[in-house]
Amino acid sequence: MVPSVLLSVAPQRALQLLTVLCTLPLALTLSLPRVLAAQASTWPQHSLERPKPPMQVAPVQMLPVAAPSGAIVLFDGRDLAWWEAADGSAARWRLVDGAMEVVSGAGGIRTRVGFGDVRLHIEWMSPNPPKGSGQDRGNSGVFFQGRYEVQVLDSYGNDTYADGQAASIYGQFPPRVNVSRPPGEWQAYDIEFRRPRFDAAGALLAPARLTVRHNGVLVQDDVALLGPTSHRVRAPYAAHADELPISLQDHGHPVRFRNIWVQPLAP
Which of 72, 99, 102, 105, CA to CA, is 20 to 30 A from 123? Predict the structure, then answer.
């Protein structure tokens, strides 16, 4: 049977992929479909021609979502004790109505401790009234290990490239659907991150993987990342520590975040 991933690519490319597939051990080929799907994309990074995810009304969701027993609460609205600036100094974002707000020019913030495999819950709000358009509207980001970004953006009635809208794996994979709420309304990400694995020599054994639920809707399903996320470049994997901080981006917009908690996952 021809793998379904091969049916969505050009015949020549499909033949190349099938040739590679047939030369691999069976145990490895059984885990390849999602990786091959990732590699098979022929869309240029940030292409405006790439189809946009269809709009879908987000289901009713009771926010904030209480942290489960045993979760590590990284922000409860009272202080930024778990967070610091990139240079290790105190985080310089504002506390407003139980949320933290990006201060333009203050720089991104990161957790004071590192994480590996983790489940993250984070709630965020785009500025209201909205200002700007495209990537210049309610832009921020959630970074795992300083390299792998889930995009935060006001994508409610705001046109931009598909791999840069809210809940995209930035520059790589658009979400399945766009379930963005209007600016000024709280939204939620529930993200499962699996770190990449490297051998002792620094060679990649397994790529990073992300599963993302945006406002309760599964929009990224165990996606294998092509490498670190970046703007207008396909950066290759490079070996790094198993545990590194979670970061939030300062992109010059007063995006707010609240109710942030994590659950470390077993390998």
Answer: 105
CATH code for the domain in which residue 195 is found: 2.60.120.560
* Residues 95 and 145 placed together within one structural domain of the fold: yes
Read off φ and ψ for residue 6, nearest 5 degrees: -75, -20
Q: How far apart are CA 70 and CA 42, in angstroms?
A: 43
Residues 253, 187: Cα–Cα separation, whole Å:
16
pLDDT of residue 233: 87
Where does 59-216 show beta strands of DSSP type E?
Answer: 72-75, 83-85, 94-96, 99-101, 109-111, 118-125, 140-144, 148-152, 187-194, 197-198, 204-206, 209-214
- The whole-angstrom separation of Cα 130 and Cα 144 is 27
Domain assignment of residue 53, yes or no = no
- What predicted TM-score, i.e. pTM, was given to this entire model? 0.84
Structural domain for 9, as ranges: 1-42
Q: What is the pLDDT of residues 148-161, one digit of tens each?
A: 999 999 999 999 99
According to DSSP, residue 173 is labeled B
69 shares its domain with 32: no
Number of domains observed in the structure of the chain: 2
DSSP SS3 for 9: coil
Q: How confident is the model at residue 9 (pLDDT cuts 50, 70, 90)?
A: very low
Question: Using CB atoms within 10 A of its CB, is residue 69 exposed (0-12), middle (13-18) or buried (19+)?
Answer: exposed
Q: Please write the tens of the pLDDT for every residue from 21-61.
A: 444 444 444 444 454 344 445 789 999 999 999 999 999 99
